[in-house]
TrEMBL record:
Residues 1195-1204 have a biased composition (Basic and acidic residues). It comes from Lynx canadensis (Canada lynx). The gene is IGSF1. This is Immunoglobulin superfamily member 1. Residues 38-106, 321-392, 419-484, 777-869, 873-961, 969-1038 form the Ig-like domain. It comes from the Eukaryota. GO terms for biological process: cell surface receptor signaling pathway; immune response-regulating signaling pathway. Coiled coil: none annotated. Pfam families: ig, Ig_2. Residues 1195-1240 are annotated as: Disordered. InterPro entries: Ig-like_dom, Ig-like_dom_sf, Ig-like_fold, Ig-like_Receptors_ImmuneReg, Ig_sub, Ig_sub2, Immunoglobulin_dom. The chain crosses the membrane at residues 520-539, 551-570. Keywords: Disulfide bond, Glycoprotein, Immunoglobulin domain, Membrane, Repeat, Signal, Transmembrane, Transmembrane helix.
Length: 1240
């Protein structure tokens, strides 16, 4: 990056430090002081002559340490290892001499090494005070005027601090603090506040003994000029290694421009000289650490600066982060309605494009301005053609090499009826004597009218505008099964699908029968007891009258007594075995949360606002109370189900105890925890709590401080130093005792203080006594059904222990909500059942139980997380690499939610308890199924929920089936009528397995979810696909599995490719051995197609009718009379569809001697032709020479005898016939006599 740094003069550096400080103020950032820096100061027992005996103290800011280090002049070191971990240690120096004068700093040991050193303490010669140091600290952050606190550290206590300004003889301010630091405040800096400041100290009793002046600090006011604009070229999102230019433009010429990256203000402050009224900052090769938030400003020669530009976020990444789509009001839309598709992604300032699967071009575009205004894609008056799978991508207007990753999709479903509503009963689904039940029919969008149906009575129908129906049980006529539906204003003639049925129970129900049976058994026991007393009295009366039959009467009494005992035991066993007492949980309206907020972190009492938030989505308004009686104010609930109560600046009238309530339609919540304001200049009093301590186990002590950004300190009675100290961790902190022992018992309290010095403290909390008591072992705690439930469901908690006759307590989020006393009629193992008849949105949370007997309690049980679903949108669950996996492999199930910071749970069908939990800062979680086996086959789903407000969860995701294959023989897959089907026709897949009563699944390559599954009674499943379309083309397979133990699944069937088309794909045509005819040789044309069971036909150009038909695709072609040459093509038809022919293949040309290719001879043909020509020419020359000899034979002398002629002719014959035998004279003469007439 080509940038210029500011000058290195001390004054300029100090000036830019103040300028950066004001920038930090405008952005609401923390001060420049590092929080890990220790504090160094001086203590002495000679206040008027501190140099006589000096002790240096070093204190860590927020944690205990085992080692401290003192440095002198950067070289000499002294370190101390205290006997136990502590916050501070002392280094005695004694009397100050020239040998121990110098520059001192200290460090403390952290887990990662030595901390940053403290500020430098300069000890000069004896008789002088230490030189103070000067720095600044933030209080509030308006621009152009900053409210500045100037801190002067004098190293000693009880000093007088003086603040001087250049040009003024008298000090502008002075302070006498109780500690070693003085704070000088300059409110709302203006140009008159500019200047050079220093501070000095002196001892109170010796005003003539002054310290050396501190280093000067020059204050410059920023924000006197209009703010500039900051733009990025070519764009704000670039890949590593690419170049980027940031342009800062202002309205004034000749200014100096500066660029800042907010993630590292101290190291990324760059200066650039202008070109007219603008400056360019070049990044020649971007790196990952160059990403961040940038802003710029400009200043003049006196360092008077402008306002800050708007923040520009720069992304440097290889791959775009994913986007996801949300449909409002729902992804299931009725035909004719409107729907908004909201595209979310982490990248700001970039346009978006909406795509639909199957279409290449984007449907809609959103530019940068629209995305900044949170606009969404809008589909108006949807029809069936709008249904499909949608996704959104980033739309860039500049070139970059960033890769586009796969994006999450959203399926839009268009239905002819509105989706079904939900139906619940209040207060429960069981009628009580003289009480009515209100049935509540609910949907998340406006409704014209609701309708209630009763399945037992076809003519029964009620209508309601708000969805509430009151059902009474007069004469037992209210019990039965109910469902509801609704219609909307846009389509008043179309009623929605019916809700899930809801059954109401009354006197004829099972619960009443149990009650009657219990009462009958108790009455029988009472009657038997009365009968026994009567028998005993009768025996005594008889004994007095018939003394001689005492033995018989005694035996009768014993028999009656034994009969009574046996009957009692039988009845008790019947009670214990058949009936279990259930304690109904009367859930109160969820308790709201109360906290405080302020915009003055160093002095919160200057402006305080109380906030109240409810976990229930049905809250209508909030009420704030003071001291339990005074109604302060009432506020309606916002969309976030919270309300603000501004108090302003605290006065004495504000002191007191505050709590809030939330109001719903028919109930008022429990009060929140009490927030106590104890003074006008003190932090709210914190609240301390902890679970009962258990010997040898970890214990967490909770300290709630009400305000965010505070630090927490834990104290123990009898220990002077803090036991633990934690930095700013939110509105509450948890102190941990790793192993609770006897030495840890005692009274504990906590305090809070501001994050920056000078600390402002709260009052100590009320003491918390920790006493280790002997305890029973923890009980067994569970729910009878899954802890992930829908609203209106019935939940029963079971708390049990092997100890007898115990009483049980049920807790929710640490607070007691129900109890169950022991019963003398329940011998054996002790247990209690806590019942929530109809779960509401605020009933979720962490539940646990304990049991006790007199003064001895048990340990708390393991918690059970109760999640109430259907509050947030449904997540998506995907399997990677796929839902079909071999044994021993790993499968990752990714659950993608709609909101970050949630907790995710993975559920498997058949298991009551979720398999895995994950808390993540993002909006997705990956669940790993390691080395899967047959037991891992099954349906999986997931849910996400918030952990802060009653575990409100999302709808369950669509289930995804995981098959662990390879354990059964693979099936066979056939398509009827064939693998090629015309659009609009019906098709059937036949999957044949090896085992009866199996579940068959049809799969398609490229689709994770199975297309269909069946459980036929035989060995084969038929999957019917009506009216197939072009997108049904693809590669299919099937598997089958056992849906009971051992849950085995088969391998994939052989893949079957399906074409949905009017014409089958064209075949290929080739020639063997070549496309050129040879003399007397034939050529075989081979036509090949992608499908079996077809008939091929060969066509020749120039002939109207097809030439040949073949079932194997081989055609033999000869070239008789040159008729085989020309262009050929082939096609085929399915035997099942003889009228549908495929497209013809590409043309193939055959050539021969008469063809245009006959003149193209090979090298061998040329050589042979040349030899033939040479031989013919040679024979012609020989014949010409011999021909010239014949005239000489005719002109010879006539007297030549016949013998010579015979010899001459014989020589000629010998030359003409080389194979003739000439050895016999007789034969010669004979031949001559025969052949002589011929030449003559």
């Amino acid at each position: 990056m080509t940038l210029d740094w500011p000058g290195q003069r001390p004054t300029m550096l100090r000036t830019f430090t103040v300028l950066l400080f004001c920038i930090r103020l405008s952005l609401g950032m923390t001060s420049i002081v590092m929080q890990s820096q220790p504090e160094l100061w001086i203590e002495t027992n000679y206040p008027q002559a501190p140099w006589e005996n000096i002790t240096l103290w070093c204190k860590s800011p927020s944690r205990i340490s085992s080692k401290f280090l003192l440095l002198k002049d950067k070289t000499q070191m002294t370190w101390i290892r205290p006997s136990s971990k502590t916050f501070q240690v002392s280094f005695p120096l004694g009397a100050l001499t020239k040998y121990n004068a110098g520059l001192y700093r200290c460090c403390y040991w952290k887990e990662t090494g030595w901390s940053e050193p403290s500020k430098v303490l300069e000890l000069e010669a004896p008789g002088q005070l230490p030189k103070p140091i000067f720095w600044i600290q933030a209080e509030t952050s308006p621009l152009p005027g900053c409210n500045v606190n100037i801190l002067c550290h004098g190293w000693l206590q009880d000093l007088v601090f003086m603040l001087f300004k250049e040009g003024y003889a008298e000090p502008v301010d002075y302070q006498i603090p109780t500690g070693t630091v003085a704070i000088f405040s300059i409110a709302n800096m203006t140009p008159e506040s500019e200047g050079v400041y220093i501070c000095r100290t002196h001892i109170q009793m010796l005003p003539t003994l002054w310290s050396e002046p501190s280093n000067p600090l020059k204050l410059i006011v920023a924000g006197l000029y209009p703010k500039p604009t900051l733009t990025a070229y070519p764009g704000p999102i670039m890949a590593p290694g690419e170049s980027l230019s940031l342009r800062c433009q202002g309205p004034i010429y000749g200014m100096t421009f500066a660029l800042i990256r907010l993630e590292d203000l101290d190291k990324s402050f760059y200066r650039k000289r202008p070109i007219k009224n603008e400056a360019y900052f070049f990044f020649r090769a971007l790196k990952i650490h160059d990403a961040g938030h940038y802003l710029c400003f400009y200043y003049d020669g006196s360092y008077r600066g402008s306002l800050l530009s708007d923040i520009l976020k720069i992304w440097v990444t290889d791959t775009f982060p994913k986007t996801w789509l949300l449909a409002q009001p729902s992804p299931v839309v009725q035909m004719g309605q409107n729907v908004s598709l909201w595209c979310q992604g982490p990248v700001d300032g970039v346009g978006l494009a909406l795509y639909k699967k199957g279409e290449d071009k984007p449907l809609q575009l959103l530019d940068t301005a629209s995305t900044d205004d949170d606009e969404s894609f809008f589909l108006n008056n949807v029809t069936y053609s709008d249904a499909g799978i949608y996704s959104c991508l980033y739309l860039l207007s500049w070139k970059t090499s960033i890769r586009m990753t796969s994006h999450n999709t959203m399926e839009l479903v268009v239905v002819d009826k509105p989706p079904k509503p939900s139906l619940s009963a209040w207060p429960s689904t069981v009628f009580k004597l003289g009480k009515a039940i209100t049935l509540q029919c609910r949907v998340p969008h406006p409704v014209l009218e609701f309708s209630l149906e009763w399945e037992e009575r076809a003519t029964f129908q009620k209508f309601s505008v708000d969805g509430d129906f009151i059902i009474s049980n007069a004469e037992g006529k209210g019990t039965g099964t109910y469902s509801c539906s609704y219609r909307i204003e846009a389509h008043p003639n179309i009623w929605s699908y019916r809700s899930e049925p809801l059954r109401l129970m009354g006197p004829a129900g099972f619960l009443t029968w149990n009650y009657v049976l219990n009462e009958a058994i108790r009455l029988s026991l009472f009657m038997q007891l009365v009968a026994l007393l009567l028998v005993v009295l009768w025996i005594r009366w008889k004994c007095r009258r018939l003394r001689i039959r005492e033995a018989w009467l005694l035996g009768t009494a014993q028999g009656v007594t034994m009969l009574f005992i046996v009957t009692v035991l039988f009845c008790c066993g019947l009670c214990n075995g058949v009936l279990t007492e259930e304690t109904e949980i009367i859930m109160p309206t969820p308790k709201p949360e109360l906290w405080a907020e302020t915009n003055f972190p160093l002095a919160p009492w200057k402006n305080l606002t109380l906030w109240c938030r409810s976990p229930s989505g049905s809250t209508k308004e909030f009420v704030l109370l003071k001291d339990g009686t005074g109604w302060i104010a009432t506020r309606p609930a916002s969309e976030q189900v919270r309300a603000a109560f501004p108090l302003g600046a605290l006065t004495q009238s504000h002191t007191g105890s505050y709590h809030c309530h939330s109001w719903e339609e028919m109930a008022v919540s429990e009060p929140s925890e009490a927030l106590e304001l104890v003074g006008t200049d003190m932090l709210p009093k914190p609240v301390i709590s902890a679970s009962p301590p258990i010997r040898g186990q970890k214990l967490q002590i909770r300290c709630k401080g009400w305000l965010a950004g505070m630090e927490f300190v834990l104290y123990k009675e009898g220990v002077q130093e803090p036991v633990q100290q934690l930095g700013a961790v939110g509105r509450e902190a948890f102190f941990t005792i790793q192993r609770m022992e006897a030495k840890d018992q005692g009274n504990y309290s906590c305090r809070t203080h501001t994050e920056k010095r000078p600390f402002k403290w709260s009052e100590p909390s009320e003491p918390l006594e920790l006493v280790i008591k002997e305890m029973y072992p923890k009980p067994f705690f569970k729910t009878w059904a899954s802890p992930v439930v829908t609203p209106g469901a019935r939940v029963t908690f079971n708390c049990s222990t092997p100890h007898q006759h115990m009483s049980f307590i049920l807790y929710k989020d640490g607070s007691e909500i129900a109890s169950s006393d022991s019963s003398w009629a329940s011998p054996g193992a002790s247990a209690a059942h806590f019942l929530i008849i109809s779960v509401g949105a605020g009933d979720g949370g962490n539940y646990s139980c304990r049991y006790y007997d007199f003064a001895i309690w048990s340990e708390p049980s393991d918690p059970v997380e109760l999640v109430v679903t259907e509050y947030y949108p449904q997540p998506t669950l995907l399997a990677q690499p796929g839902p079909v996996v071999l044994p021993g492999k790993n499968v990752t199930l990714r659950c993608q939610g709609a909101f970050p910071g949630m907790r995710f749970a993975l559920l498997q069908e058949g298991n009551q308890v979720p398999l895995q939990f994950q808390s993540t800062s993002g909006n997705s979680a990956d669940f790993l199924l390691h080395t899967v086996g047959a037991e891992d086959s099954g349906n999986y789903s997931c849910v996400y929920y918030e952990t802060t407000m009653s575990n409100r969860g999302s709808h369950l995701s669509k289930p995804i089936m995981i098959w662990v294959t390879g354990l059964l023989p693979k099936p066979s897959l056939l398509a009827q009528p064939g693998p090629i089907v015309a659009p609009g026709e019906n098709m059937t897949f036949q999957c044949q397995g090896e085992l009866p009563d199996s579940t068959f699944v049809l799969l398609k390559e490229g689709t994770q979810e199975p297309l269909e599954q069946q459980k036929p009674s035989g060995y084969r499943a038929d999957f019917w696909m009506p009216a197939v379309r072009g997108e049904d083309s693809g590669i299919y397979s099937c598997v089958y599995y056992l849906d009971s133990a051992p849950f085995a699944a088969s391998n994939h069937s052989d893949f079957l490719e399906i074409w949905v088309t009017d014409k089958p794909p064209k075949p290929s045509l080739s020639a063997w051995p070549s496309t050129m005819f040879k003399l007397g040789k034939d050529i075989t044309l081979q036509c090949r197609g992608p499908l079996p069971g077809v008939e091929f036909v060969l066509e020749h150009d120039g002939e109207e009718a097809p030439q040949q038909f073949s079932e194997d695709g081989d055609f033999v072609i000869n070239n008789v009379e040159g008729k085989g040459i020309g262009n050929y093509s082939c096609s085929y038809r399915l035997q099942a569809y003889p009228d549908i022919w495929s497209e013809p293949s590409d043309a193939l040309e055959l050539v021969g001697a008469a063809g245009p290719a006959a003149q193209e001879c090979t090298v061998g043909n040329i050589v042979r032709s040349s030899l033939i020509v040479v031989v013919v020419v040679a024979l012609g020359v020989v014949l010409a020479i011999e021909w010239k000899k014949w005239p000489r034979l005719r002109t010879r002398d006539s007297e030549t005898d016949g013998r010579d002629q015979t010899i001459a002719l014989e020589e000629c014959n010998q030359e003409g016939e080389p194979g003739t035998n000439t050895s016999s004279p007789s034969s010669v003469s004979q031949e001559t006599s025969v052949e002589l007439p011929v030449p003559i």
